[in-house]
Amino acid sequence: MTEPRWLDADEQRAWRRHLRMQSELTARLARQLQADSDLSLADFEVLVNLTDVPEARMRVTELAKSLQWEKSRLSHHFARMEKRGLVVREDCPSDARGAFVVLTPEGRAAIEAAAPGHVETVRRLMFDGLTAEQVATLTAIADVVLDRIERDAAGELGPSPSTAADA
């Protein structure tokens, strides 16, 4: 068995700062949405996905994949949103087992009311403190990491050095 590839001090500091930033930013955005619009951050994510597609409807499986949620989590969350009138379920006419999640007029009104405060909070907490160069660097870093995640999911990166030695 090979030794773990521990993070060096700079990598560990960057990783821990990233985790703290992500956690604190998510918590602040969630509190702002709840206080200003009575939407949870998860509600907002679902509504954003639906407003980004034609006809404001997505297959349940597509929405779950887009959100990176398990189908059961989406099902439970969808039920709560449906009770509040934000979304409805429609059967798929071409697939008896399939269904669509559809944005309602109430759901559209909710996201349209929530978006200005949400984007202002994102801007105030994140982008107002960054230069254009830093935004470009952040985008480039995110692109590299997301590409590696996709390649890893597809098996293109191969096993990590520590698991390869165990095989």
Automatic annotation (TrEMBL):
A Pfam match: MarR_2
Ranges of residues in domain HTH marR-type: 11-147
UniProt-recorded name of the protein: MarR family transcriptional regulator
